[in-house]
Design brief:
heterodimer; A: about 375 residues; mainly alpha; B: about 500 residues; alpha/beta; 6-stranded mixed sheet
C-alpha cells in the first residue's frame, strides 16, 4: 500500500509540474467546448431580408408585424429601392419582398394579389429557406388575419410538428453533451497513452523495475492519479455546459458521474494499453488519436446514427466505449434518467473496462524484454 | 575468496548476427569494487541487465548473490541497488521527493528516513539542494543523486552502469571516493565505464570487447600506469599499426591567406539570467588543432555551437575564414565540416545512401560525388557495410561514417564535437592519426572533449569551467602553470585555483 501511495504521489507531482498534462486535461476540453458551442451550428438559420411596402393600408401593417415577429427572419424596411437592390447584390440581404400598392385592394376585390420575392441564388440553400419562410409567413398571415380568413380554402391536412425534449431543435443541446464524450476520450486516452511510454523513454522505468514494486502496484499507480484528473476535468466540462452554456440537464448528477467514471476507466484502459505496447510517446499519441478520437467522432452515434451504418461497422462500434457513453449522456441531459438506457450501456462499458484492465496487466512486463 | 556473482557460459543474442555477450565465464568477488571496462557495444550494459534479471540470457547459468535472477527476481530486487545509464531520476520531482519515492519503493520505514536521507545527502553534498527539481541539477549532481537513491536500503550488491560518463574529473574522483567508503562495509560493487583511465581506481578489473572478456585481474598487473594500461589493452585487442593516412593524402585543400581561420570575439550566451558562456575570445591559426576541454555544463558545447552558427550569441561575433557566421551564414558554413557528438546521421538509411546524401547536400557536382564516395569507401573500408542501415553499424564504424560525411567537401575547417566518446581505443588512435595528418596538410581543427589524454594531441587548449575559459595555451604551458605532469592533475588544479579566485572575489 505504501508503495502504491508513493507511486500515486509521484505521478501527481509530475502531472502538476508538466504543462502538457494541464493542457490536455483542462485547456483542450475548454477549447473543444467553445468550438462546438460557437463553431458548429446545425440549426436552421436566421435570415436578413429587405421589405418594401408600397401599400399603406392597415392590413399590410399586420403583415409587416408578422415578418418582424418571425424568429427566423430579421426584416429591414426600405424606402429607397436602389439601396435595397444594392444591399441584395452586396450580400447584405438574403432576399427582398416587395408588397405592391394594390395588394390589399386586390385582396378586397377577391382577386389574386401578387407579392414579389427576390432571393440571392448564389447560395441556393439559403435562397430556398428565404422562399419557404416567406411563403409560410404569408399563408399564416392569411389564415390568422381577421379580414381574409374565410378567403383561404382550409387545407386538408394541418401539420403540427413537435420535437420532443428539444422543442427548438437547438442542435447545441445534443451536440455539446455528445462533445463531452469526445473530450473525455481525449483525456482518458491521450493523457494516459503518453505516461507509460514516457517512463520507458526517460529511463525511469528501468530503475523502477529493480525495486520491490509489484505488477499490480505499477498498473494501479498509473490508473489512479489519471482517473482523478479525468474526473476533475469531466466535472469542469459539465460545469461549463450546464452553468455557462446553459444546456438543460434533466437527469441526476450522480448517475452522470457513475457512467462517466465507467467510461473514463475504459478509455484509460485503452490509453494505457497503447502506451505499454508502443513504449514511444510520439507513436503512442498518434495511435491514441486514431484509435480514440476518430472512432469517438464517427462511430459513437454522435453525428451519424449507428443504425444507418453498414452492418460490419455497427459490429465495430460495439467495442467502442464511446458508443455507450454517448447513448447515456444524451439521454441523461435531454430526457432524464431512463434505467432501460443507462443500465445496459453501463454493463457493456464495465465489461470493456475490465477486459482492458486485464489486457494492460498482462502486457505490463517486469523485464526489459 | 567468496564470490558474490558467478557466471558460467553466458551468451546473449539480440538478433541473429553477432552475440552481444559471447560465452562468458566469470566470478566477481564479494566486498570489492570491480570495474567493468570496455567501449560502447562491448556488452557491459547487457551483462549488468542480465545480472539484475531485466534481461533473460539466451544460454548459460548465473547466480547473483546466491539467487537466480530469472526465477527469483523479486527476492533479488530487495537486496540490490541498480543505477541505470540514465540514472532513473524523475526530472519533474525535487531531490527530496525523488529520495522519498525510492525510499518507499524499497520499503524503508518512515522513522528511518530522516536519518538515512541526512547521511546520504551529506555524503553527496546535496544538502543545500533538497527542494531543487532534479531536472535543474548539473550532470555531476544528477549522478550523485542517482547514486544516493540507489544506496537507500543498504543493498548487498551495487550495480552501477557508467555512473561517471561526461562528468568532470573532480566529480568523478568524488564519486569514486563515495563508493569506496561504502565498500568497506562489505558491499560488493560493480562499476562499468568506458574510461580506461579509471581502471586503477578499482580493486579488480574486467576488460570487455565485442562481448568477450579480454582481461580479468588486478589493474596493476596489466600495467602500473594509466597510459600504459591503454597500450596494453590495445595489444590485447589485436594491436594497432598506424599506416599513413589515406584520408589526408586524398584531401585537396584550397590555398588561402587568412591568418586567423577561426575567430571568436567576446562571445557570450545568456539563457534568462544565466550566462552559459561569458567573454569567450580566441583566435585559431591555420592548421592548428584547438581543443575545448571541460566537464558537461561548462559551456563548451554552447560555445562550439555558436561558432558553427547553430546557436545565436547574445553578444559578440564568430568568424570562419574571415566571414561572420551570422551575416554570411551560407558562405561561412561552406568552409565547415561538422561532426556531431555520438551520432547524427540517418539511422534508417544505408551507409551508401548517407554518403550520397551528404555529398549532394554539400554541393558536390555529380561526377565529383561518385569519385569522392568511391574514395571514402576505400579509405575507411566501408565495402562490407555499404548496404547496411547506419543504425546497425558497430560504434567504431558509425564514427568513421560521421567523419567521412564531414570531410566529403574538403573543408578547410573541421568542427568535431566529442568525436570519440565511447569508442574503443584502437578506433580512437586511428581517428587522431587522421586528424593529425589533416592538420599537417593545413586543415584547421576545433575539437571538444572531456578525455584528458586527447588534450595532449591538441596544439592549444582552452579549459572551460562554469561558462568561462579559465586557461588557454598549449598542453605543456597549462601543465607548467600549476606544476604538474599529467593533464588531469593540471585540470583539477586549475579548476581549484579558479574556485579560490571566485571565493575571494565575493
Amino acid at each position: 500500500m505504501k508503495i502504491l501511495k508513493a507511486l500515486v504521489i509521484k505521478e501527481f507531482h509530475q502531472i502538476v509540474r508538466d504543462p502538457s498534462s494541464i493542457l490536455i486535461a483542462f485547456v483542450l476540453p475548454l477549447m473543444l467546448l467553445i468550438i462546438y458551442r460557437y463553431g458548429i451550428n446545425l440549426d436552421t438559420l436566421k435570415l436578413t431580408m429587405g421589405l418594401k411596402i408600397d401599400d399603406p393600408s392597415q392590413q399590410v401593417v399586420t403583415l409587416v408585424d408578422s415578418f418582424k415577429s418571425n424568429k427566423f427572419i430579421t426584416p429591414f424596411i426600405y424606402q429607397n429601392p436602389k439601396k435595397m437592390y444594392d444591399d441584395l447584390t452586396g450580400s447584405k440581404l438574403r432576399g427582398i419582398v416587395i408588397i405592391p400598392n394594390d395588394f390589399s385592394s386586390k385582396l378586397d376585390r377577391k382577386e389574386i394579389a401578387t407579392v414579389q420575392l427576390i432571393t440571392d441564388g448564389s447560395e441556393t440553400n439559403l435562397a430556398n429557406y428565404a422562399q419557404n419562410y416567406t411563403k409560410t409567413i404569408l399563408v399564416q398571415w392569411l389564415n390568422y388575419s381577421s379580414k381574409y380568413q374565410y378567403k383561404v380554402p382550409p387545407s386538408l391536412i394541418n401539420l403540427d410538428s413537435r420535437y420532443w425534449y428539444n422543442q427548438d431543435i437547438n442542435s447545441h443541446y445534443f451536440i455539446l453533451p455528445g462533445s463531452l464524450c469526445i473530450t473525455m476520450t481525449l483525456i482518458g486516452m491521450l493523457l494516459t497513452a503518453l505516461v507509460i511510454a514516457r517512463e520507458w523513454e526517460r529511463g525511469t522505468m528501468e530503475a523502477l523495475l529493480t525495486t520491490k514494486i509489484s505488477k499490480l502496484q505499477l498498473v494501479l499507480g498509473k490508473y489512479i492519479p489519471y482517473f482523478i484528473v479525468g474526473m476533475l476535468s469531466m466535472s469542469f466540462s459539465v460545469f461549463m455546459c450546464i452553468c455557462v452554456f446553459q444546456i438543460p440537464f434533466r437527469g441526476h448528477l450522480i448517475v452522470l458521474f457513475i457512467f462517466s467514471a465507467l467510461f473514463l476507466f475504459t478509455a484509460m484502459g485503452q490509453g494505457l494499453l497503447i502506451s505499454t505496447i508502443l513504449k514511444n510517446q510520439f507513436t503512442a499519441s498518434q495511435a491514441a488519436l486514431v484509435a480514440g478520437f476518430l472512432p469517438a467522432l464517427m462511430l459513437s452515434g454522435l453525428i451519424f446514427p449507428i443504425n444507418s451504418m453498414p452492418i460490419p461497422i455497427q459490429w465495430l462500434s460495439t467495442i467502442m466505449p464511446s458508443r455507450y457513453f454517448v447513448a447515456c449522456i444524451q439521454s441523461e441531459f435531454m430526457s432524464g434518467t431512463i434505467p432501460e438506457i443507462i443500465i445496459p450501456n453501463c454493463i457493456f462499458m464495465g465489461i470493456l473496462g475490465l477486459l482492458l484492465f486485464v489486457a494492460v496487466y498482462k502486457k505490463t512486463q517486469m523485464r526489459l524484454e | 575468496m567468496t564470490s558474490s556473482i558467478e557466471i558460467k557460459n553466458l551468451t546473449k543474442k539480440f538478433t541473429d548476427n553477432e552475440p552481444a555477450i559471447d560465452n562468458l565465464t566469470l566470478n566477481i568477488e564479494k566486498g570489492k569494487i570491480t570495474g567493468l571496462i570496455g567501449p560502447d557495444g562491448a556488452g557491459k550494459t547487457t551483462l549488468i541487465r542480465i545480472l539484475t534479471g531485466l534481461l533473460i540470457p539466451t544460454n548459460g547459468e548465473i547466480s547473483t548473490i546466491g539467487l537466480n535472477p530469472i526465477t527469483q527476481k523479486d527476492l533479488l530486487n530487495a537486496k540490490i541497488g541498480y543505477m541505470p545509464q540514465k540514472f532513473g531520476l524523475y526530472e519533474d520531482l525535487s531531490v527530496i521527493e525523488n529520495l522519498n519515492l525510492y525510499a518507499d519503493l524499497k520499503g524503508i520505514a518512515q522513522e528511518e528516513k530522516e536519518g538515512l536521507f541526512n547521511k546520504v545527502l551529506t555524503m553527496t553534498d546535496l544538502n543545500n539542494f533538497r527542494s531543487r527539481l532534479a531536472g535543474a541539477l548539473s550532470g555531476g549532481m544528477k549522478q550523485k543523486l542517482g547514486l544516493a537513491c540507489t544506496l537507500l536500503g543498504t543493498p548487498e550488491l551495487l550495480l552501477l552502469d557508467e555512473p561517471s560518463v561526461g562528468v568532470d574529473p573532480i566529480s568523478r574522483r568524488e564519486l569514486i571516493k563515495m563508493v569506496r567508503e561504502l565498500a568497506t562495509d562489505g558491499m560488493t560493487i560493480l562499476w562499468s565505464t568506458a574510461y580506461l583511465d579509471e581502471a586503477h581506481s578499482f580493486d579488480s578489473c574486467i576488460v570487455m570487447n565485442e562481448g568477450k572478456i579480454i582481461y580479468n585481474g588486478l589493474p596493476h598487473e596489466l600495467s602500473p600506469t594509466s597510459e600504459g594500461f591503454e597500450e596494453k589493452v590495445i595489444e590485447l585487442m589485436g594491436g594497432y599499426n598506424p599506416e599513413p593516412s589515406k584520408l589526408a593524402e586524398k584531401f585537396e585543400i584550397k590555398e588561402n591567406n587568412i591568418e586567423f581561420v577561426i575567430e571568436a570575439l567576446d562571445l557570450a550566451k545568456k539563457y534568462g539570467d544565466f550566462y552559459a558562456v561569458k567573454n569567450n575570445t580566441f583566435h585559431i591559426k591555420k592548421g592548428e588543432i584547438f581543443g575545448l576541454l571541460g566537464p558537461n555544463g561548462a559551456g563548451k558545447s554552447t560555445s562550439f555551437k555558436m561558432m558553427c552558427g547553430l546557436a545565436t550569441p547574445t553578444k559578440g561575433t564568430a568568424k570562419i575564414m574571415g566571414q561572420d557566421i551570422l551575416q554570411n551564414p551560407s558562405r561561412a558554413r561552406s568552409y565547415l565540416g561538422y561532426m556531431a557528438q555520438k551520432f547524427s546521421l540517418y539511422g534508417d538509411m544505408s551507409v551508401f545512401q548517407n554518403l550520397r546524401f551528404f555529398s549532394g547536400v554539400y554541393g558536390l557536382g555529380l561526377f565529383k560525388r561518385k569519385e569522392k564516395i568511391d574514395e571514402i569507401v576505400d579509405i575507411f573500408h566501408f565495402k562490407k557495410y555499404l548496404n547496411h542501415d547506419a543504425k546497425e553499424l558497430p560504434l567504431g564504424y558509425k564514427q568513421r561514417l560521421s567523419l567521412a560525411c564531414a570531410v566529403m567537401h574538403d573543408p578547410p575547417v573541421l568542427f568535431l564535437d566529442e568525436p570519440t566518446s565511447g569508442v574503443d581505443p584502437i578506433t580512437r588512435r586511428e581517428f587522431w592519426h587522421h586528424i593529425k595528418a589533416l592538420s599537417k596538410k593545413g586543415v584547421t581543427v576545433m575539437v571538444t572533449t572531456h578525455f584528458m589524454d586527447e588534450a595532449e594531441f591538441c596544439d592549444r587548449i582552452s579549459l572551460f569551467y562554469k561558462g568561462e575559459a579559465i586557461a588557454t595555451g598549449s598542453p605543456s604551458e597549462l601543465k607548467d602553470m600549476v606544476n604538474t605532469s599529467s593533464m588531469e592533475d593540471a585540470f583539477v588544479k586549475l579548476i581549484e585555483r579558479s574556485e579560490r579566485v571566485e571565493q575571494s572575489n565575493r
